[in-house]
Specification:
This protein has one domain. The chain is 67% helix and 0% strand. It is globular, with a radius of gyration of 17 Å. The N and C termini lie far apart (39 Å).
Amino acid sequence: MRHEHHVLHNPPSSTPAEVHAAVDRGDLSAATDAMVGTALYGDGDWRELQELHLQLLRHEDHQVSALAATCLGHLARVYRQLDDRRVVAALREARSLPHIRGTADNALDDIRLFLHPRGARWRGRVWTAVRPWTWI
């Protein structure tokens, strides 16, 4: 049995124009790197980035659309602001697609944690209290 090591790397900062260019030319590897590069560093306008990733959430390629959900969660963490009603509604709708369900749930958790931290802490305490196996 052969084992491969994969190396995680954070791509450099990028712009929505770079994402669009990579998507338009069909270079999905460059597009996904650029998507992550727009979301991780806090270099751009959060509104423009939010619109970019909401648009990509409906992309036909499963990898791109799932990563768009992840990037929306990153935007919540980095910028601590989003149009959460629109983003939450889009992510809840995206959960109906099996390839996005997990990443959409994670993004919703990030939005809850970074945009509404008091509510997230309260929910965590209640959840721990009702799970008796965590008392040990």
